[in-house]
Amino acid sequence: MTQTVLLKSTLLLVIAVTAINQNLWFRFKSKTPFDQLLNITNLYLGVHALFVFIIEHFFLPYPLYDRLAPFSLMYGPFLYFALFIIHHRNIEFWKILLHSSPFAVFNLGYILLIIFGLPEDMVEYYGKCLGLASVLSFTSYSIWAIVYNSKPIKQQLKQHKLVVIIAVIILLFTTMIMFVGAFSDEAVDNFTTSVGLLRFLMYGCMFCCSLIIHRFYSLVVSNAAISPVPEADFGLVNNLDGRYEKSVLAEAEFDSYLSKLEKLMNNEQVYLHRDLSLLKLAQLTRIPKHHISQVLNLKLKMNFYEYVNGLRVQHACILLKENSFDTLENIAEQSGFNSKVSFNRHFKSIKGVTPSAYRVTNTI
User: What is the rounded CA–CA span in Å between residue 219 and residue 51?
Assistant: First the structure.
């Protein structure tokens, strides 16, 4: 397999995976800032790979079209945005503009080079500046991420942080590749071998990033890795008044199901997922949904929604004690509630006081 074919194959893999990720995004429209950022990053990866593929296929005699494109200057900021959102739930627009400004400046210079065909010495100067800026960007953002990533976060954001940790590792590896490519005389003199290998490694890193996003979408956003419980397993259904025609569960089965349910709630905290439903809980526990309803009704004397909202209120109480300056909107979101109104209503019905009153009492 020739070097060109290997590069094109890697780029096509990146394009294919990012297209699959985009399809998952349309099917499972998540609205959180982190997921929106992940979607933008996925699109960026796809556009980058498509751009390089077009250059390789149609403009092979003009390698500078690819080597001078400033795509590398946005991967560090994407890492910064992701980690900042994990810790602060959101990010200000001015920070996005500030960290994206190097990419915008070099992109303008790239367009001028392509359209007006600037002198060779200016092209060479631009290339050296881009290489230096890319290495500095990758290095500084990687170091910042390693330091900032040590801050504690909530349990429900662990999977988000794992994505960022893997991205930091890939970014560090890519930093070393770019350093060799930008400052190694041997790499410049021996383009067909050294630079070709470095490019292949970089596009391989892009492919790894697209796979990480796909894994995140599959397991966290879409829950695609969880096979649905067959309808035949559900057996009996509830009567309209909420009671059951009969129970086919023995006492030991009740205890086993309740233990499995409580273990999932304590270890995974799935009640923090705002879209959690009885059907999804059945898929997660592999327990027929009508059996879950029976266990909750007969063992805990509550229905599914009372059970889940009770756990969410308990979690909110911890957050209210720990985060005395966080807004109630953020507390509600982190606790799995869809709105502040719903949060206040359920909190007061369970605790007898509003969240703000509970915070004041417990802070004192």
Answer: 29
What residue type is assigned to position 9 of the chain? S
Same domain, 26 and 86: yes
With a CB cutoff of 8 Å and minimum separation 6, the contacts of 143 are: none
Q: What is the pLDDT of residue 240?
A: 34
Q: Roughly how many angstroms between the first and final C-alpha of the chain, as a whole number?
A: 71
Q: In angstroms, rounded to a whole number, what is the distance separating the alpha carbons of residues 189 and 277?
A: 61
In-domain check, residue 266: yes
User: Three-state SS for 353?
Assistant: coil
Q: Which long-range contacts (CB under 8 A, 24 or more apart) does 284-289 make?
A: 284/223, 284/226, 285/257, 285/260, 285/261, 286/229, 287/229, 287/257, 287/260, 287/261, 288/229, 288/233, 288/234, 288/235, 289/229, 289/234
Residue entry with tokens 């007969």: 298
Q: Enumerate the H helices of 89-157 as residue ranges.
A: 93-116, 120-148
> Domain containing 52: what range?
3-221
Q: Splitting the chain (364 residues) into consecutive groups of 10 residues, what average pLDDT does each group show?
A: 72 89 72 79 90 82 74 87 77 89 92 79 85 85 73 49 57 56 46 57 74 69 40 36 48 80 85 86 85 85 89 90 81 87 89 88 69
CATH number of domain containing 208: 1.20.1070.10
The whole-angstrom separation of Cα 291 and Cα 257 is 8
pLDDT of residue 90: 75
221, 252, 275 - which closes a domain: 221
Last residue of a domain, one of 187, 221, 255: 221
Residue that is written with structure tokens 């309803």 in the block: 293
CA 103 to chain centre: 22
How many domains are there within the chain? Answer: 2
Helix (H) or strand (E) holding 15: helix 3-27
Confidence (pLDDT) at 31: 60
User: CA 208, CA 285: separation in Å to the nearest integer?
Assistant: 30
- For 205, residues 6+ apart whose C-beta sits below 8 A from its C-beta are 170, 173, 174, 177
